[in-house]
From TrEMBL:
Residues 16-151 form the N-acetyltransferase domain. Its EC number is 2.3.1.-. InterPro entries: Acyl_CoA_acyltransferase, GNAT_dom. Keywords: Acyltransferase, Transferase. It comes from Bacillus bruguierae. This is GNAT family N-acetyltransferase.
Length: 165
C-alpha cells in the first residue's frame, strides 16, 4: 500500500473529531484499563478540552492518505525543577498498525519537540511496552533509560530528543 503520511496539529474546529477518535482509543485500550462506558455508552476521555485551553498541551492527528489514522497527545510537564515532554496518549487505528505508521508518527513527534522525554506504559500493556522500547531504541540509538515512579504502575522510558533523526 502506498502511504502518504503526515502529522497535523489539531485545530479547535476539529476538536469533535479528536473526541470521536478518543472513543476508539479508549475502547481499544479497554483490555488494559478497568474504566467502563458511562450511561450514554461513551468513555468520554476527560482531558480533550484541556488540549485547547491549557498551555503545554499539544494535540496531533496522525493521517494516512488524508484519512484519520490516529492521534497523539503530548504534554510539556514541569516537575521537581525539570521540564520534559510526555506522550500522554498515542493511538494508531488497527488497520494502520504493523506498516510503520506508529513508528513514523512517534519519531516525527520526538523531532518536533527537542528536549527531555518520558514515555510511560501501563504494566499490563505489554504490546505498548514492546512498541515504545523498539521505537525509542531506534530513535536514540539505544541511548535511553527505563525507570519506575511511585505514582505510576509500569515502565517509563526516559531519553533526550535532539530534534532530528
Amino acid at each position: 500500500m502506498d502511504i502518504n503520511f503526515k502529522i497535523e496539529k489539531v485545530k479547535l474546529e476539529n476538536k469533535t473529531v479528536l473526541k470521536n477518535l478518543t472513543e476508539l482509543y479508549k475502547y481499544d485500550f479497554s483490555e488494559f484499563d478497568p474504566e467502563d462506558v458511562n450511561e450514554h455508552g461513551l468513555y468520554e476521555y476527560m482531558y480533550v478540552d484541556h488540549y485547547f485551553t491549557e498551555e503545554g498541551r499539544f494535540p496531533f492527528f496522525i493521517k494516512v492518505n488524508e484519512k484519520y489514522a490516529g492521534f497523539a497527545l503530548i504534554r510539556e510537564i514541569e516537575e521537581n525543577g525539570r521540564t520534559y515532554y510526555s506522550m500522554s496518549e498515542f493511538f494508531v487505528m488497527k488497520k494502520y498498525r504493523k506498516n510503520g505508521v506508529g513508528k513514523q508518527a512517534a519519531i516525527q513527534l520526538f523531532c518536533k519537540f527537542p528536549g527531555e522525554w518520558e514515555v510511560a506504559e501501563m504494566e499490563e500493556n505489554t504490546p505498548a511496552q514492546a512498541f515504545w522500547r523498539k521505537v525509542i531504541s531506534l530513535y536514540t540509538n539505544n541511548e535511553y533509560r527505563e525507570i519506575r515512579k511511585a505514582d505510576w504502575d509500569g515502565p517509563i522510558q526516559v531519553f533526550h530528543s535532539s530534534g532530528s533523526m
